[in-house]
Task: inverse folding
């Protein structure tokens, strides 16, 4: 029974525009502008159009028109015990019950679903179906999540197509994608289909690839626990950064943030627990580009704090901490 449903999910996700695999779905009260559909292989209802764009689509001849239905992409919510069984059978011995709880709560916090990756094929299309079912839908595609930032380096490490991690790492990627989608809506004044883009790079970096690109030996990218997101302007980055502050203040959770002038590293669920980090594993750091940036934070962003010993907190009310940017 699994394969036909997987096929349906892949089929449903086939509507895409010319510059990215961005599906038309009723995931927002803000519809895409008419100009989008004029350049797309999808019409306003989410059906594949029988036009030149659709004819040139790589899968157009294989699929019949079907309406993009978010509800159809949802799966039964997985339990923590089910996920622990999945982890035991995969290549993620460090993925703890505590981290799975953080990911489950975060999926709910960002209006997604906590879904078992083992219900999906271990390939690119299976991963696309998985993030659709998790609720990422059209915010970010599987293709851009697994695309290596340096293709030549990936090939040298034996990855000829993309950097697709073991399925036990997919949960983290889906939750990170949900959060990135929220930030995309925030920088567009609530419209996730607005003109301001976020470019996603560097999700999973296997050890060979991480070493060759100069990544830290303890980088969370090695366990697919973080994204790097590039923004069009420092203000967009600062706006998304303020959103992270607001979310964290409402309910503390294991959030990791690296801040640059037009870049944010976003991670969740890292198992690192040190005195210099928050008790929930949350932490932040800055990149050199931020020091020369005209905007380090927006005036009403009161997070990113540090004390005299250099210990950092995303946010705390402890008087020994003050602004750290």
Result:
């Amino acid at each position: 029974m699994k394969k036909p449903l997987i096929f349906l999910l892949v089929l449903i996700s086939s509507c895409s525009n010319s510059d990215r695999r961005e599906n038309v779905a009723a995931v927002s009260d803000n519809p895409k502008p008419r100009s989008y559909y004029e350049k797309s292989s999808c019409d306003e209802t989410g059906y594949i159009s029988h036009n030149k764009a659709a004819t040139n689509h790589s899968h157009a001849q294989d699929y019949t028109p079907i309406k993009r239905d978010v509800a159809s992409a949802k799966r039964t919510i997985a339990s923590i015990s089910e996920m622990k069984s999945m982890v035991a059978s995969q290549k993620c011995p460090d993925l703890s019950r505590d981290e799975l709880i953080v990911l489950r709560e975060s999926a709910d916090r960002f209006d997604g679903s906590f879904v078992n990756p083992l219900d999906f094929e271990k390939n690119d299309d299976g991963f696309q179906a998985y993030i659709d079912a998790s609720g990422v839908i059209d915010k970010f595609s599987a293709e851009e999540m697994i695309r290596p930032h340096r293709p030549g380096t990936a090939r040298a490490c034996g990855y000829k197509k993309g950097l697709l991690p073991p399925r036990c790492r997919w949960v983290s990627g889906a939750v990170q994608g949900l959060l990135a989608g929220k930030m995309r809506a925030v920088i567009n004044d609530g419209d996730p289909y607005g003109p301001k883009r976020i470019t996603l790079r560097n999700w999973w970096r296997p050890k060979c690839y991480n070493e060759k690109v100069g990544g830290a030996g303890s980088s969370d990218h090695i366990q697919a626990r973080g994204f790097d997101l590039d923004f069009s302007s420092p203000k967009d980055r600062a706006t998304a950064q303020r959103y992270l502050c607001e979310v964290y203040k409402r309910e503390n959770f294991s959030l990791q943030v690296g801040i640059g002038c037009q870049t944010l590293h976003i991670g969740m669920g890292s198992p690192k627990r040190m005195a210099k980090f928050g008790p929930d594993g949350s932490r932040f750091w800055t990149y050199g580009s931020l020091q020369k940036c005209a905007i380090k934070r927006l005036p009403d962003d009161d997070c990113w704090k540090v004390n005299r010993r250099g210990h950092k907190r995303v946010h705390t009310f402890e008087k020994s901490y003050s602004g750290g940017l």
Summary: Residues 75-232 form one domain.
